[in-house]
Amino acid sequence: MEKESEKKTVDIDDGVVAMAVRYQGFDPAAYLQYNYTPPRADFQRSDSIVPWKLSCLHKAFTEGDIDGDLLVDIGTGPTLYQVMSGCEVFRRVILTDFLEVNRKELKTWLGGGSGSLDWTPYLEYVCQLEGRSSSAASDKASRLRSAVTDVLPIDVHRQQPLASGALPPTGADCLVSCFCLESVSPDVASFNRALGNISTLLRLGGHLLLIGALGESFYLGGPGLQIPVVPLDEAQVCNSLKATGFALVQLSVYTLPPDMRVGVDDVSGVFFAKARKL
């Protein structure tokens, strides 16, 4: 029995190594173009996926049960939308990613550069959700830049995903993670293990806001670069959260309209989960 368990661990590790090799060709600019421009990021459409994600995050951060000092985004990639609401709630925000090219992309914008995508429409939309004029977008950009104190390397497949001392001993008050764990795990077992690993970064009673793909087996990480994804369904998301010590507070599901299926992946839907660490 013990040998069988050891074999499963080796198989997971081999799969994780293969995923890391595949990601060396990741192209942040191409990925942003594929997923964060219209039709998926059409702020004039109520059924566009990006406004849906921003609305879920805004609602979660303003319901009154999430607070504290430190917000950590797990597997930020080259994107910033996931902390645009949270930076108003938390004094400090830490961004993390496995790839240096993504960390470089984030640092370019945080340092005042333009980066590969104009985030202004995103900032304007979140300001409107907050009841402010879209003209407040420059103030929100300044707030976000001042709130982010670090952009750190992370490996969600390690028991200690961040370097020792990167977080306070009690952990973060809230974690956000969007489209990370299922797209860096070769199977459900490693997805669950990664979810358990990141839970160690969160204090007891803290919240996890998890956004991910449903029914997806691949996505393009750059021209011709097909990256495998663990296909999840709603039941699996709920089971994984429960198995790793989280109580599900809310689960919402978005189904992609036909014209949002633009050939850069085979995703059928997106889930938003709000959970609390027990």
TrEMBL record:
It comes from the Eukaryota. Keywords: Methyltransferase, S-adenosyl-L-methionine, Transferase. Pfam families: NNMT_PNMT_TEMT (PF01234). The keyword Methyltransferase applies. PROSITE patterns: SAM_MT_NNMT_PNMT_TEMT. GO terms for biological process: methylation. One of its GO terms (cellular component) is cytosol. Signal peptide: none annotated. GO terms for molecular function: phenylethanolamine N-methyltransferase activity. PANTHER family: NNMT/PNMT/TEMT FAMILY MEMBER, PHENYLETHANOLAMINE N-METHYLTRANSFERASE. Belongs to the class I-like SAM-binding methyltransferase superfamily. NNMT/PNMT/TEMT family. This is Phenylethanolamine N-methyltransferase. It comes from Denticeps clupeoides (denticle herring). The lineage of its organism: Eukaryota, Metazoa, Chordata, Craniata, Vertebrata.
